[in-house]
Amino acid sequence: MVSNNIMGYKEQIDLSRLPEHVAIIMDGNGRWAKGKGKLRIFGHHNGVLSVRDVVEGAGELGVKYLTLYTFSAENWNRPSIEVTAIMELLVSTINKEIKKLMQNNVRLNAIGDLNMLPGKCHRELLGAIEKTSGNTGLVLTLALSYSSRRELAQAAKNIALKVQQGELNPEDVTEEVFAQNLYTHNLPDPELLIRTSGEFRISNYLLWQIAYAELYFTHKLWPDFRREDLYEAILDYQKRERRFGMTSEQVN
Ligand code: FPP
């Protein structure tokens, strides 16, 4: 059902000033399920419906990059029954959604320590990435087994190795060179970071990349989040003045 409110948010968005890249920390699946007297995995299953709606809504609007914090490196420490269920959900979702991704011209991408994923999950993921690699619409990046600190440490290691092998001079290690050694080397920095569920934390997500991102927090739990919530966040983003360290007069 489309309410006036939904139409309202979308219509108010200035399409010439869309954030090119939106990153989301999808949080609150467990609490959502608990609130309904269900198991946590019920929340993750319903979280997939939010993913589907937000991916469609973002693509429809013209957002170019959407990056979803799907499974953190720290999440491996959850009870194994939940980890297994999330991995199975990932596989079944990829299989179920691949047709839709092709229809919607979405290119799937992933960042994180993907080698940690169970073999089947890893293979299905790489297969879907390959299958959608020619698509030219929204780039949907799933952060899986992702830790920003690990990503940064890995980048430092790569650079140190290049210096050691004489491929790079220490004085040539610029911000750009550093960024080129991150998982996100082929993505622009997010301009907008959304976190659901009323938590005001970054939780080891894209620490380098969000240096100038606008942060948007909502109390909605992820399974309740839909495209109109994304539109509301984008509207809020458009009302802000992004100064990048300059004065208000300078940016105006
Ligand atoms: C956070 O809620 C959610 C996760 C750790 C998993 C996210 C996974 C999905 C939305 C489903 C799979 C997604 C795709 C793209 C196939 P939480 O469990 O931390 O909730 P809580 O803070 O209330 O416990």
Automatic annotation (TrEMBL):
The keyword Magnesium applies. It comes from the Bacteria. Binds 2 magnesium ions per subunit. The active site is at 27, 75 (proton acceptor). Its cofactor is Mg(2+). Substrate binds at residues 28-32, 40, 44, 72-74, 76, 78, 195, 201-203. It is an enzyme of class 2 (transferase). InterPro entries: UPP_synth-like (IPR001441), UPP_synth-like_CS (IPR018520), UPP_synth-like_sf (IPR036424). CDD domains: Cis_IPPS. Pfam families: Prenyltransf. Its EC number is 2.5.1.-. PROSITE patterns: UPP_SYNTHASE (PS01066). Keywords: Magnesium, Metal-binding, Transferase. Mg(2+) binds at residues 27, 214. GO terms for molecular function: ditrans,polycis-undecaprenyl-diphosphate synthase [(2E,6E)-farnesyl-diphosphate specific] activity. Belongs to the UPP synthase family. Catalyzes the condensation of isopentenyl diphosphate (IPP) with allylic pyrophosphates generating different type of terpenoids. NCBIfam families: PRK14830.1 (NF011405), uppS (TIGR00055). PANTHER family: DEHYDRODOLICHYL DIPHOSPHATE SYNTHASE 2 (PTHR10291:SF0), DEHYDRODOLICHYL DIPHOSPHATE SYNTHASE FAMILY MEMBER (PTHR10291). Homodimer. This is Isoprenyl transferase.
